Amino acid sequence: MNSFDVMFYLIAALTLLAAAVMVFSKNIIYNAMGLLVAFFGVAGIYVMLGADFLAATQLLIYVGGILVLLLFGVMLSQRFTGAEMRTGTLQVLPATLVCAGIAAILLRMIWQTPWPKAEIAAPKPTTHEIGMQFMTTYLIPFEIVSVLLLAALVGAAFLGRRDAR
Amino acid sequence: MQVGLTHFLVLGAILFCLGLLAVITKRNAVTVLMGVELIINAANINFIAFTRYMDNDLDGQMFGVFVIVIAAAGAAVALAIVLNIYQRMRSVNLDEADSLLG
């Protein structure tokens, strides 16, 4: 068991614990904080997989953007008096059974599949290469996703107006 | 046992199931969105693990970047919709948003 393995188990345990807090806590602020730690853990997993650019992107966009957006959603849609901060749950038992079943199927599939083994090279910096790919192989998806982001921005601004009809 | 592809896949699968559980059981629309983000992260872990352990090129990481962008766009629009629902119904509980139920 080398240091890579130890790091993986630590980060994976942190991520799963935070995700469990996010799922099972009744307080919506605890949900958001659990999600924050889970995002940090996923960024650590990206680092362990040699994806340095994606780890930075994860921190910038998920932790800095999406989570703040979700917290805004919490603040704007909750009444802070009384027990309104608590979020209810529905159909916990059947949902847990279904999710456990799906997890069992997925884990069984993962363990039984003979994944091909590739030669693992030492991780290299990826930012330069990702930039090159954006401007060559992935130019069309890059442009499409830019237009999609613009459309989503305009749509969110329109829907978020107070008198949207 | 040496940490390899299966470990990352198992982590992704468990994260996916936790996110799915949140999406199914939570009443609050914002919490359901949090579950969706967890599912997207699980899928991204799979993309990057596969590209690291099977091809060793950057295709999976490119997919990961696009996934993050689309998740951001989706979260922005979904939250705008949730805020609209709140303004109309004074509640973000999904089981109360049943005006279309006839």
Order of helices and strands of chain A: HHHHHH
The residue-averaged pLDDT of chain A reads 88
Instruction: Summarize the largest interface: chains and residue counts.
Output: A-B, 83 and 69 residues
> What level of helicity do the residues of chain A show?
over 70%
Distance between the termini of chain B: 57 Å
Mean pLDDT of chain B: 89
Structural class of chain A: mainly alpha
Query: Percent helix among the residues of chain B?
Result: over 70%
* Number of continuous helical runs of chain B: 3
Structure notes:
The complex is a heterodimer of chains A (165) and B (102). With 165 residues, chain A is an all-alpha fold. Chain A has two domains: 1-88, Up-down Bundle (Four Helix Bundle (Hemerythrin (Met), subunit A)); 124-165. In chain A, 73% of the residues lie in helices and 0% in strands. Chain A has six helices and no strands. In chain A, helix 1 (3-24) runs antiparallel to helix 2 (28-48) and helix 2 (28-48) runs antiparallel to helix 3. The mean pLDDT of chain A is 88. Chain B has one domain (5-91): Helix Hairpins. The longest helix of chain B is centred in the last third of the chain and has 31 residues, at 59-89. Chain B is elongated and about 55 Å long. The model of chain B has no long low-confidence stretch (mean pLDDT 89). Chains A and B meet through helix 1, helix 2, helix 3, helix 4 and helix 5 of A and helix 1, helix 2 and helix 3 of B.
Give descriptors for this structure.
heterodimer, A: 165 residues, mainly alpha, Four Helix Bundle (Hemerythrin (Met), subunit A), 2 domains, 0% strand, B: 102 residues, Helix Hairpins, 3 helices, elongated
Q: Topology, pairings included?
A:
The complex is a heterodimer of chains A (about 160) and B (about 100).
Chain A: H1 3-24, H2 28-48, H3 52-77, H4 92-112, H5 127-135, H6 139-160
Helix pairs in contact in A: 1-2, 2-3
Chain B: H1 5-25, H2 29-55, H3 59-89
